[in-house]
Design brief:
- By secondary structure, the chain is mostly helical.
- Helices cover 74% and strands 0% of the residues.
- The protein contains 13 helices and no strands.
- The longest helix has 19 residues.
- The radius of gyration is 19 Å and the shape is globular.
- The C terminus is likely disordered.
Length: 259
């Protein structure tokens, strides 16, 4: 009903924002049709910059849903649009994500090129940590172990220097994306780290992406518990009910204000 009213009222741009932002709060497969429609709407309206941002969001969800090929294609389109517009202020994000998608596709040399291009464009500790972490995984795949260890040390240094409490969770998600060949226990550890961080910070976007990764892994008893916590947290944040925090043994306190 809200969609129909917005379309009749000529508020297609606002509807596209709603679709993009609403899709970004969901995980993987559930997000794809919403953000995809936002991309199409922004394209139709000639809102090139907004369409590019929505494409970058769409590429993240395609990757989380298990389709790095589609993610790479979407990111290349976003990068082409950014270059045509001359606005390269945030080019590090699609370059970093493209490197991760290419790494998942086994196109390791191309992944390294994208990540090396992203490195000088990264402007804060989190971005530098993410790129360095992905570059480390890429170099390890190429057998350049000393360089890989140096890049990993850079990632850890940037993480510590950032002072942002969400960075360990975001890096855990980045490491999940580059964790092909890792054991189930290692992946479970990364999912647990991300879940703990985003539950502690009430980061809805982080919770949704973590849930997307958790739904892709083989189900175990602990993973089932993590999924349940994430689903309860997302539902609680939407409703304003955060009583679920009281039952989490890894989250001993919570003072939450909703306006």
């Amino acid at each position: 009903e809200a969609r129909t009213l917005m379309e009749r009222g000529g508020w297609r741009r606002d509807l596209a924002f709603l679709l993009k932002n609403g899709g970004s709060m969901k995980d993987g497969v559930d997000a794809l049709p919403l953000i995809g429609e936002a991309v199409s709407t922004f394209d139709d309206l000639g809102e090139r910059q907004l369409a590019t941002v929505a494409r970058i969001n769409l590429a993240v969800e395609q990757f989380v849903a298990g389709d790095p090929g589609a993610s790479a294609t979407t990111l290349r389109r976003a990068l082409d649009d950014m270059r045509r517009s001359g606005d390269l202020t945030r080019v590090n994000t699609p370059l970093n994500n493209l490197g991760l998608a290419l790494l998942a596709l086994g196109e390791v040399e191309e992944a390294e090129a994208a990540l090396l291009a992203a490195r000088p464009a990264s402007v804060d500790g989190w971005e530098r940590a993410a790129v360095a972490n992905n570059l480390s995984a890429c170099l390890r795949r190429l057998g350049r172990l000393e360089e890989a260890e140096a890049a990993l040390a850079d990632a850890e240094a940037y993480e510590k220097a950032s002072g942002d409490p969400s960075v360990p969770g975001r890096l855990a998600l980045t490491r999940l994306g580059a964790s092909e060949g890792a054991s189930n226990d290692d992946r479970l550890g990364l999912i647990r780290t991300a879940a703990n961080v985003f539950l502690a910070t009430l980061d809805l976007r982080g919770l949704a992406v973590t849930l997307g990764f958790a739904r892709r892994d083989p189900l175990s008893g602990e993973l089932r518990g993590i999924r349940g916590e994430l689903e309860a947290a997302i539902a609680g944040i939407y409703s304003g009910d955060v009583s679920f925090l009281c039952g989490l043994d890894h989250f001993p306190w919570a003072i939450v204000l909703f306006e």
